[in-house]
Amino acid sequence: MKEQDSIYHLMFRDQSDVLHVKDVQKILSISKHQVYHLIESGKIRGVKVGKSYKIPKVSVIDYLIGNSND
């Protein structure tokens, strides 16, 4: 658990704890459509606020290290 905690603190330190679709696009080098697909499929958590999604940075990290909700 300690190792996982350090991963969360080290990855994407320069990013806010809450990301926008454009941020996730840049981090993962994927299209906007692919980001929406990841959210809709539950692989990355996202909350719709108004017309945009707010995505917890920890959710993107979970996806990258294989802890996403498949």
From TrEMBL:
One of its GO terms (molecular function) is DNA binding. Residues 19-64 form the Helix-turn-helix domain. Pfam families: HTH_17. It comes from the Bacteria. This is DNA binding domain-containing protein, excisionase family. It comes from Sporobacter termitidis DSM 10068.
